[in-house]
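Letters spell out the chain; backbone shape is given numerically. Both lines appear below:
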Amino acid sequence: MNVLLVYAHPEPTSFTGALKDIARDTLTAAGHHVEVSDLYAENFNPVAGRHDFTTVHDAKRFHYQNEQGHAHANAGFAPDLAREQQRILKADMIVWLFPIWWGGVPAIMKGWFDRVMAFGFAYADGKRFDSGFFRRKIGMLCLTTGGTVERFSAGNVYGPVEQVLYPTQHLMVEYMGMKTYPPFVAYASPRIDEAGRKAYLKQWSEKLLEIAAENAPREAAQA
């Protein structure tokens, strides 16, 4: 299985970084091919604009979605976007790893979705959810929180984590038609002790092996 880890954290020694490392090492040891898009280390630009394209659909008025569709039809994406799109096409499984900031993904990862998951490439009219382009791919979120599991519970201050993650889980990952699993959440990771962190890493490693075994054998494919 080919796995792409899309990782967004500015600090390599963060617990989010540890989850990324465990995912890479666990899946590699199990015989899978793993590639990492390290958005901060690769200086990924999250800001959309005409620099996203080597083609021009309308020079007078910049309509981002129209420019994306034109670029997709004419091999006109900028090199950084073409690189990320090729990584996606090769992947059987994509895992997004990030800390939850202000109730969502960090800006650099939101910009990755905006720029990389372009119209024509990742979705189109009539190609969403059950009819999406990426129905043969697996998508999963892996995240860390500062808040405790109690705070992310029904009736508590933040609400259920499923509710908090709805825009990312449903309107981004599931929107593209991917087979999804419940997000892996490491709650209160800055506050728990070393034993708690090790338990999270063990659970994460086991979950990845379980998913890989459930979906083997798979061949990398563009839907």
About this structure: Residues 218-223 have pLDDT under 50 and may be disordered. The radius of gyration is 18 Å.
